[in-house]
Amino acid sequence: METIHRSTLRLLPISLSALCLTRPTAPESKRIRLPISIPGILNPKPAFLTSRKSYSSAPSPVAKAGWFLGLGEKKNKSLSLPDIVKAGDPVLHEPARDVELGDIGSERIQKIIDDMVKVMRKAPGVGLAAPQIGLPLRIIVLEDTKEYISYAPKDEIKVQQRRPFDLLVIINPKLQKKSNRTAVFFEGCLSVDGFRAVVERYLDVEVSGFDRSGQPIKINASGWQARILQHECDHLEGTIYVDKMLPRTFRTVENLDLPLAEGCPKLGSC
Ligand SMILES: *[C@@H]1O[C@H](CO)[C@@H](O)[C@H](O)[C@H]1NC(C)=O
Ligand SMILES: *[C@@H]1O[C@H](CO)[C@@H](O)[C@H](O)[C@H]1NC(C)=O
Ligand SMILES: *[C@@H]1O[C@H](CO)[C@@H](O)[C@H](O)[C@H]1NC(C)=O
């Protein structure tokens, strides 16, 4: 699930989409001098933009944007990271399969988990499901940090019940609602970047599954963490948030703060 809110985007002098559209294609001599204050980033190595390894589709604007923002890691490490798969790729629209318990400790699965955590942090996002790197496997990772939360307005953090939590890796998660309480808020997805829509989610959930060492785990979550868990578990069913959104609330990130259309519910807990 995507974490950059309007306030973080305001730190950028121009929009990410504009960057992605203009930068990689601009010829060296005609490269537009973008009003960016971070030194060094106007001289991208073309190879770095094109030789990205992918489990599935083409290089993603999000991955590029993450790199451009200096949110990534050392160049060499980034080169071997998978791209985030975007809406329309069948892997995002089909159910994923269980990881065999005996496989959890394998080098392959451990590497997939490491990659997922890196891709999530680099994006940056607060959650990622394996289908989002092109793998139809039931693995999710999630994490919300003080830093990410500090970018959101204080009143929003409060009503969303957003609290930091440590990295969670859950294999073969099973989600159950623990109450009928729900909340309606905007959410976004790294696979549908640049957009937001209101989705109604349960406020209290329990998720059981296995951690990366193969031990059974059970998590009680509420508020924003419960929303992230529902969003990521939905990915494993081939469901993305646009399948569940209130359609008339769909908008670009830039328009996030504009008023809701008539007939849309008020944001908050129900
Ligand atoms: C990057 O990887 C290449 C080989 O893959 C290696 O030769 C080079 O030293 C590495 N560079 C850094 C900065 O680690
Ligand atoms: C949720 O509501 C349904 C009926 O609407 C009820 O049967 C169920 O017990 C409720 N669940 C909880 C956890 O309160
Ligand atoms: C989750 O909450 C239930 C009560 O709703 C409690 O019995 C259980 O011990 C909690 N589990 C964890 C792992 O905190």
From TrEMBL:
Pfam families: Pep_deformylase
Keyword Hydrolase carried by entry: yes
Keywords: Chloroplast, Hydrolase, Metal-binding, Plastid, Protein biosynthesis, Signal, Transit peptide
Location within or outside the cell: Plastid, Chloroplast
Top-level taxon: Eukaryota
EC number, UniProt record: 3.5.1.88
SUPFAM superfamilies to which the protein is assigned, alphabetical: Peptide deformylase (SSF56420)
Gene Ontology biological-process entries: translation
PANTHER family: PEPTIDE DEFORMYLASE, PEPTIDE DEFORMYLASE, MITOCHONDRIAL
Family in the record: Belongs to the polypeptide deformylase family.
Protein name as catalogued: Peptide deformylase
